[in-house]
């Protein structure tokens, strides 16, 4: 354990945290395994409590004294109770307090630089062309937030935020550092309330929690906390991710020690659970001495891992290749509409607007995810069929408030094929280009990560396109009289796999 880590562990214990140092320690793994993380020092059973964090040691707008010093009325007036700006300002202010801050030693071990695309230059960002990362970066929202909320709040209280420290503690650059710390390390503690009798399923702890608590002979009151990647508190993130309900921003908390654990796809062997006043990191399966203790970031696709955490998973896949088994390619509904327009050039524009509006009103998806399992998301077929309905069929569907059944006939599949091809065309390199780039020993980290993200997506698209090709041939085979039928394929058409 390095000196920094030692000081941090000591601080953690002084603040009332407990850590089983006979079972685990903080150490340094190779960068590909997450860098700093936690290692098991002996064989551990499932259900072992590795460390416990008192609620007051977590850092949030609930536990920092800044909001009350600033005054709750003003806190609301400056919009600091929305999104992450309040927590960012609290973290800035706590840092400016130096050793006087309750979290000084914790803040000291937090990263100050990140490999996330938010910090990439335009040349590196160009390498992400085709992926959905660029639209999700939220650079403009961040700038707006800083200018419209943080700056006026800072200027309103020179007693709390002395202008002499503005560059060191309160600059736009520091705003990004704090935002990125939250993005990659915070937990959503929204369910971190005492569980009342009769509360719904939602708050049930999972079976591993039960066993953890049984072992410690505590009354089971625990529930698994959302992992870092399940945070839902940042307004811009919510909008991007389409998360259903905005949660209370003060639920977003930095959780010292818990945020020292790395993650890898389906490797989680420990999880954070809560009791009334403490959060416990509990092993969820046996861990061998010397193995890394992994938390979960929800097994995200590489595009999201890179955007939020600055790394990618590069693991053996079931099909013998390498990548992230959780990868997905997003096909926006707009690409599907463009595909229909290209094939049916005579269709009037307003037909699309009306039908898409209705589709969304009825709760239809605006993005369709395709993954390595190479399955069609059925809703995409409903949407395509809706766009292809004749005017009278459309009127009937609307009257009955009934979306078309997701039936993939040849015409529907042909539209999907066009949409997937359009999506594939958005990348500026081919699969072959990317594969040969990855052979290079001198590939910079950002470029390597960008190549891995786009390669995974393109391979999924390629696999889906192969399936669509087969299914179109089979569909034409079944219905030889359709207008779009190529005779040769119709004769030799294979049976649909669906
Ligand atoms: C919650 S922190 C984990 C602790 C972190 N390694 C540290 O030193 O503080 C999340 C960050 O750890 C790194 N990380 C976690 N899992 C990783 C992995 N499988 N590969 C590479 N980096 C990883 C990423 O930089 C990520 O943003």
CATH architecture of the largest domain: Alpha-Beta Complex
Proportion of residues in extended strands:
5-15%
- Indicate how many domains the architecture comprises: 3
CATH fold group of the largest domain = set domain protein methyltransferase, domain 2
Determine the CATH superfamily of the largest domain: Rubisco LSMT, substrate-binding domain
Largest sheet: 5 strands, antiparallel
Rg over CA atoms = 26 Å
Strand order of the largest sheet: 1-4-10-9-6
Globular, elongated, flat, extended or rod-shaped: what is the shape?
A: globular
Please, how many helices?
21
Hetero ligands: S-adenosylmethionine
Structural class, judged by helices and strands? alpha+beta
Give the termini distance in whole angstroms: 54 Å
CATH class of the largest domain: Alpha Beta
Helix content: 40-55%
What is the mean pLDDT? 87
Plain-language structure description:
The protein contains 21 helices and 15 strands. It has 498 residues and is an alpha+beta fold. A 5-stranded antiparallel beta sheet has the order 1-4-10-9-6, sandwiched between helices. Strands 2-3-11-8 form a 4-stranded mixed beta sheet, with no helix packed on it. A two-stranded antiparallel sheet has the order 5-7. The longest helix has 34 residues, at 445-478. It binds S-adenosylmethionine. S-adenosylmethionine binds next to strand 3, helix 10 and strand 8.
């Amino acid at each position: 354990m390095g000196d920094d880590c030692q000081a941090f562990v000591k601080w953690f214990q002084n603040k009332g945290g407990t850590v089983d140092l006979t079972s685990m320690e903080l150490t340094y793994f190779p960068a590909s395994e997450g860098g700093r993380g936690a290692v098991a020092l002996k064989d551990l059973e499932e259900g072992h409590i590795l460390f416990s964090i008192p609620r007051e040691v977590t850092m949030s707008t609930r536990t920092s004294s800044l909001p009350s010093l600033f005054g709750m009325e003003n806190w609301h007036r400056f919009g600091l109770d929305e999104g992450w700006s309040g927590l960012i300002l609290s973290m800035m202010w706590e840092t400016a307090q130096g050793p006087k801050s309750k979290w000084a030693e914790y803040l000291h071990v937090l990263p100050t630089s990140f490999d996330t695309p938010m910090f990439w230059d335009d040349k590196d960002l160009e390498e992400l062309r085709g992926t959905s990362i660029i639209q999700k970066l939220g650079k403009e929202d961040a700038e707006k937030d800083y200018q419209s909320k943080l700056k006026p709040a800072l200027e309103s209280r020179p007693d709390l935020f002395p202008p002499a420290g503005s560059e060191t503690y309160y600059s736009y650059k520091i705003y990004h550092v704090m935002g990125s710390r939250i993005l990659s390390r915070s937990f959503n503690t929204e369910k971190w309330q005492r569980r009342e009798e009769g509360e719904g399923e939602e708050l049930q702890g999972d079976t591993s929690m039960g066993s953890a608590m049984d072992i410690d002979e505590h009354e089971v009151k625990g529930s698994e906390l959302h992992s870092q990647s399940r945070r839902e508190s940042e307004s811009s993130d919510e909008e991007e991710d389409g998360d259903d309900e905005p949660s209370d921003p003060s639920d977003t908390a930095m959780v010292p020690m818990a945020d020292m654990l790395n993650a890898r796809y389906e490797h989680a062997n420990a999880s954070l659970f809560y009791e009334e006043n403490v959060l416990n990191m509990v092993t969820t399966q046996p861990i061998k001495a010397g193995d890394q203790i992994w938390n979960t970031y929800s097994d995200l696709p590489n595009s999201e891992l890179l955007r939020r955490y600055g790394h990618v998973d590069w693991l053996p896949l079931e099909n013998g290749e390498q990548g992230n088994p959780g990868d997905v390619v997003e096909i926006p509904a707009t690409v599907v509409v463009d595909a229909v327009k290209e094939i049916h050039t005579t269709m009037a524009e307003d037909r699309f607007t009306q039908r898409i509006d209705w589709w969304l009103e009825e709760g239809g998806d605006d993005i369709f995810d395709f993954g390595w399992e190479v399955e069609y998301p059925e809703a995409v077929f409903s949407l395509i069929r809706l766009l292809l309905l004749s005017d009278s069929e459309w009127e009937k569907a609307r009257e009955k408030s009934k979306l078309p059944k997701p039936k993939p006939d040849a015409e529907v599949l042909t539209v999907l094929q066009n949409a997937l091809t359009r999506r594939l065309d958005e990348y500026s390199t081919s699969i072959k280009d990317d594969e040969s780039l990855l052979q290079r020993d001198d590939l910079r980290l950002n470029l390597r990560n960008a190549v891995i993200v786009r390669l995974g997506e393109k391979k999924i698209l390629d696999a889906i396109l192969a399936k669509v090709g087969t299914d179109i041939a089979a569909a034409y085979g079944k219905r030889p009289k359709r207008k779009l039928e190529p005779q040769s394929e119709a004769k030799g058409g294979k049976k649909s796999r669906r």
